[in-house]
Amino acid sequence: MGNSELTGRVIKLMPYGAFVKLDEGRVGLIHVSQFNVPELSENKSPVKEGDKVVVSIIGKEKGGKLNFSFIKKIKSDPDPRTPEFSKGGFEQKMKRFLRESQDTQTDQKKRMQRHRGLAA
Q: What pTM was computed for the model?
């Protein structure tokens, strides 16, 4: 197999390694012995499900299953589903919500008064 670097995403973690689906669609396994992390324990994996990784193909089994060697984890942009308040913007978001809520209530009150004929 070649030494080319391929990118993929971790789709499943197991006690014996991590399954990775390459961007091209093929799936293979990074065995725990291929993580190149000296103090790797069963509970500590250098990757988690959903992580984007760079791997190298080190072998192919008879059934067509691929064996990968872990090269590195790719740092990704923050998850767009992450709430803004986890980034420290919670207070700002709350202040904006309260201000908009008060404005909405004031507008609603004025509309009700106009509807009842109480406003000039």
A: 0.57
